Amino acid sequence: MQIIDLSLPIDDEAFEVHDLRIERTSHKDGVEKLNKVLMSRSPEDKARYERGERIIKKEDLPDEEFLSLEMVYSSVHSGTHLDYSYHYGSKSEGRISKTAEEIPLEWCYADGVKITLAEKRAGEVIEARDIEEGLKKISYTLKPFDIVLLYTGSDKLFGGKEYFSNYPGIDTSVIDYLLDRKIKIFGVDTMGIDKPYKLMMKEFLQTKDCSKLWPVHFYGRKREFIHIERLANLGKLPDSGFKVICFPVRIRKTGAAWARVVAIL
User: Which residues contact 206 (CB under 8 A, 6 or more apart)?
Assistant: First the structure.
């Protein structure tokens, strides 16, 4: 068995459009932080702490170290993640939208198929006919619950500003094509499923046509779908013959959730 990691990290050194901060407390600093927490429960303890008293001294711990601690302050859309209908709007298909914790887990472990679309340039749109042609090239017929992965190679730009501006979007016809074949989850190795923000805004400002703004995301209000954004390493996969696991982290009442997406060969 071979496991291929299809996930990008939550990385505080990479360029992000949303604020992302990881506060790291080292083993040495953890001793002091432990005392600060323990001695913050009453005015008397706080006063003792300010005077330099400590409940636990570094000499009381093995190697004079406590436990490391990291606090992550991040959007649920950083790193590889699954989006569900609540992200797209308050209602989907006329019903209250579902949050990421409601994604059925049985949909998140299924046969995978890779459709190669590397010829698509930044700002272009992937249409249903591109999906159909891609499937014909690999002689594959979609079956219900397959997890469809759209490979553009855009993940190689991760870490810089180009990752957010140089990738193809998809057309709503792709959503219809996949849902009509009972596909529950599809994924992209791009930052998002719509065209890059700058191109959408440019088209909107030129035409004043509101349909230019996040058309695929907003389509989730008409038809319910789940998609994975920010996949990586799809180029390492065969076209088919592998399983995909994409269990979302269980975070309450969010439109998206981080996931460690892997392929099993």
Answer: none
Residues 132-189 have pLDDT tens digits of: 999 999 999 999 999 999 999 999 999 999 999 999 999 999 999 999 999 999 999 9
Angle between helices 43-50 and 27-38 (to 10 degrees): 140
Domains contained in the chain, CATH given: 3-15+76-264 (3.50.30.50), 21-73 (no CATH)
Q: Which two three-digit tokens encode residue 98?
A: 């579902």
pTM > 0.90: yes or no: yes
**Main-chain phi, psi angles of 204, to 5 degrees:** -65, -45
- Residue spans of alpha helices (H) in 124-196: 128-137, 172-179
Task: State the residue for tokens 């436990």.
Answer: 67
Rounded distance, CA 188 to CA 229, Å?
5
| Cα 119 from chain centre | 24
